[in-house]
Each structure stands twice: as C-alpha cells, then as structure tokens.
Amino acid sequence: xxxxxxxxxxxxxxxxxxxxxxxxxxxxxxxxxxxxxxxxxxxxxxxxxxxxxxxxxxxxxxxxxxxxxxxxxxxxxxxxxxxxxxxxxxxxxxxxxxxxxxxxxxxxxxxxxxxxxxxxxxxxxxxxxxxxxxxxxxxxxxxxxxxxxxxxxxxxxxxxxxxxxxxxxxxxxxxxxxxxxxxxxxxxxxxxxxxxxxxxxxxxxxxxxxxxxxxxxxxxxxxxxxxxxxxxxxxxxxxxxxxxxxxxxxxxxxxxxxxxxxxxxxxxxxxxxxxxxxxxxxxxxxxxxxxxxxxxxxxxxxxxxxxxxxxxxxxxxxxxx
Length: 321
Ligand code: SF4
Fold this sequence. Notes:
This protein has about 325 residues and is α/β, with parallel strands linked by helices. It has helices at about 25-35, 80-95, 115-125, 145-155, 170-175, 180-190, 210-225, 240-250, 255-270, 300-310, and strands spanning about 10, 20, 40-45, 100-105, 130-135, 160-165, 200-205, 230-235, 235-240, 275-280, 290. Strands 3-4-5-6-7-8-10 form a 7-stranded parallel sheet, sandwiched between helices. Iron/sulfur cluster (SF4) binds near residues 49, 51, 61, 64 and 164. The site of iron/sulfur cluster has 10 residues, from loops.
C-alpha cells in the first residue's frame, strides 16, 4: 500500500514538481487541515535552557549548538510580533504559504513563568494568518499549570508541543548529558495527552551508544505512545560542542548518505502510519558541520528517499503488526 494521498510539493528548485511520498508528511497533513500551504515561521523569544544555565546542568546536551538549527533571521533582538511580521511576507512570496504556525524553536520554550508564556504565546497567535503554535521544549519543563495554559489555547488553535527526547535509552541520555531519563518523557506525555494539544517527539539516530536494532526499536516504541508528530534525523557532529571533542579524540561511525536512506526506510516501515513526519534529516550549516558531510539538498534527499522506497515497495507502517 502506498500512501497515495500524500503527495507534497518539493521545495526549492523543484517547487512545481509533485512528488509522491511513501510516508505521512507534515506539509500535506497541514494542507489537508487548512486547505492551503502552511509554513512555520520561526521565532526566538529569548528563552534559555535549564540544561545550560545550571538548573539541571551547565554543559548542555553534548551535540547542542543552537546555531545549527536556528535560521539567521530568527533572533531575540526583535519582539515575537516583529519576527512574525518579518517572516510571513518572505514565506508568502518564496513558497506561496497561506497560513502559518509560529515555531518557538531555540532552547526551551516553556522555560518561564506561566504568565510570561501566556503573553508570548498570545502575541504570536494575534496575527490573522497564524493558525497555531509549535513549541519546542524539554519534557522536564512542563507542569500542570503550563499544560492547562496550552489546553486552553488548543481549544481555538493548533497547538503542538514538541518534546525533545533524542533516545528512549537511558544509557544514551546519560551519554549525551540530556539531564532527564526516558521516564520523564513518559510522564510529560501522560500529562499532555487527551487535552487537545498535539504531541510531537524528536529523536536522533546514530549515537555510538546504540546498535542499529536499538535505533529501529524506537519506531515501535513511538507507535505505542500518544505521539502524533515525529522528527527523526541523523546525528550530526557540529563545531563548538562537546560531541565534537569526543569525535575528534575518538571518531565513531556515522551514517553515510545511502545508509541513512536505507535506515529511514527501515524505520518508517516499523512506524505507525498515523504518525506525521516533520523532519527526516538534519542540515546544520556547512560552516559548522564536521560530520557526516553529504553535500545533498533537502530536495535531493527527499527525492532519493522516495525513489529508494519506491524500488523497495516500501511505505510507512508496512511492517507494523
Ligand atoms: S539540545 Fe535543547 S535541551 Fe539540550 S542543551 Fe540544547 S537547548 Fe538545552
């Protein structure tokens, strides 16, 4: 079975080409919901992270360099409103986007008093083209009061909480200095589920603490949880991180390009077809990326993944029992 209603527009140069995908992709999911292209507009609301400021730890996660996933235009020097007003016209012109999700991305975006969060979230929602929020955070940075705030906002808006998890294995969470065990994620999920809030999870595959089979097992684990959205991507070593020092001292195997395509196909076959994929690979800027270096664009990776899955007769959930 191919997920035939899951054709999405390829990005960049291939904008006009319709590509059939073999998995439940975020772009199409949002288009189905809102009947127009929905894009994320990234904002930096000036949050910090308890894994960096000493509340949980000071070093942060060993792979973390926020510059590797923050667009240049996204800076807390401007108010949330100003960042949105600057980002939306560009996305409309460049991609023909019709509606927008405001993405609170860098650091930990529920790490403040609930009154502060409410003000920032309402500021973001107060734009006629904004239909909701995506909020990236840690599972140890939510509580009943914050979830109740999100529950209230979710009555009239698309509210997605993206919990950084990275791995279901405590041995890996310890290795990466994540500062919380897997159980913490499970508790956050239990608090969030069934309240109208969309739940996302973020996984990284490729840590040297895990076997390939252990990485693949995470697909089954996510499928048994109230996770609706998933980001999964290859581990990248970037400059200015503890992982870069570890890698320099003792290089470990990383995913090659074709290996990653095959890994994704295997992972997707084991994943529930109901889970919406938000990201399938990481793309740190060339200026800070150490490994693995693939020199592939987003469009190339998505096309190669589709071609590979097509040849293999592969689709999301194929091996799900
Ligand atoms: S990855 Fe997220 S949780 Fe970890 S140190 Fe960076 S901002 Fe904090």
